[in-house]
Amino acid sequence: MSRRNPFEEIEQMFEQMGDQFGQFDDMNVPATQSLSVDLADHEDSFEVTADLPGYEREDIDLSVADRTLRISAERDESTEEGDGNYLRRERRRRSVSRSLSLPEEVAEEEASATYTNGVLTVTLPKAASDEDSRSIDIE
After folding, report:
1. What SS3 class is residue 12?
2. Are 99 and 90 spatial neighbours (Cβ–Cβ below 8 Å)?
3. How many helices (DSSP H) and strands (DSSP E) are in the chain?
4. What 3 state SS string does 15-31 have?
5. What is the distance between the alpha carbons of residues 64 and 51, in angstroms, rounded to a whole number?
6. H or E segment at 9?
7. Which domain range does residue 38 map to?
8. According to the per-residue pLDDT averaged within each range, which of 26-40, 73-87, 100-114 is highest?
9. Which of 41, 61, 95, 99 has its CA 20 to 30 A from that of 83?
């Protein structure tokens, strides 16, 4: 007489559920992800480039203060299959964010950004240096 293994029954149940609902490819992707950026130092400005495919311009939030650039983007995704009384319907919110410390002060009011074909480019002019300093004589 052989003993039943309850774990085999549980595994079979999960396999049946997986077959019924389909395999979910993005199950292990976290809801919030980090954002990779490129920072270029030009003579008079910094240029930050970030890939944000699938986001709309309105989904992106940019701010700069105290030598820190903050980029965040958020979007809703939905997947629907079947019709009428649906068999599967999924919704999720995706977001990415990044705070980037800048090596020098920037002219915050002169910062500009473009978003073309999923690529965000932020131009941050460097703050004017105090070249108008004067020499102080020691008595």
Report:
1. helix
2. no
3. 1, 8
4. HHHHHHHCCCCCCCCCC
5. 19
6. helix 6-21
7. 27-81+89-125
8. 100-114
9. 95
